[in-house]
Amino acid sequence: MMQRHFEEELEAIKEAILTTAGMAERALADAGKALFERDTELAQTVIDGDDEIDQMEVEIDRLATEFMVRHQPAAADLRFAVTAIKLGPDLERIADLATNIAERAISLNKYPPVKATIDLPRMLNLSRAMVADAISAYVKRDTVLAREIIRRDDEVDSLYVQLLRVLITFMLENPEVISRCIGLIFVARYAERVADQATNIAEEVVYLVEGHPIRHQKLEE
Fold first, then answer.
1. Residue range 2-210, CATH number
2. How many other CB atoms sit within 10 Å of the CB of residue 183?
3. Which residues of the chain have pLDDT under 50?
4. pLDDT tens-digit readout, 94-119
5. Where are the domains of the chain?
């Protein structure tokens, strides 16, 4: 009986994480769509859904904490619970960033679009793909994929710097679009931070599987 409860609680934690991850991914996808398709109503839907994701983070923390107190797990099961407690805030932060993008979309949608944003959809798509792959790595306990996600963060960082240069140049040449370009720079910054959160998740996957932290360490080539 005790073993059955143990397994059921582990499964409940995992399901809560996957549910929250799905909600965060959807918020991110919808925020990008709202921005590029100029869909203010969809942007508001993203903003309205943020509270539910906040509540899911609290639920993950509760489930994992109660599991540790009740069962005093060791080794891999302890790492699973600790990782869950860390993943909750990462996923909640991704949802917050999606909300930030949605808020910028609502503001930007009031004005004609700025043309100098060719790399912004790519940045958002890369960041969103990193999140999806990080969750896949978590489900599959795939440290090879996790390390590949960590390396992909450099590509998003490079795109951010490149887009920043393009938008600054565009603002200098077209002063009338300065406020809109600043809004797009914020969106790019949010996309870059999403990639950082995906990297955090990938690092936690390595910790979960291998039992040692790799944050702030340079990956071997």
1. 1.20.58.220
2. 20
3. 221
4. 999 999 999 999 999 999 988 766 78
5. 2-210
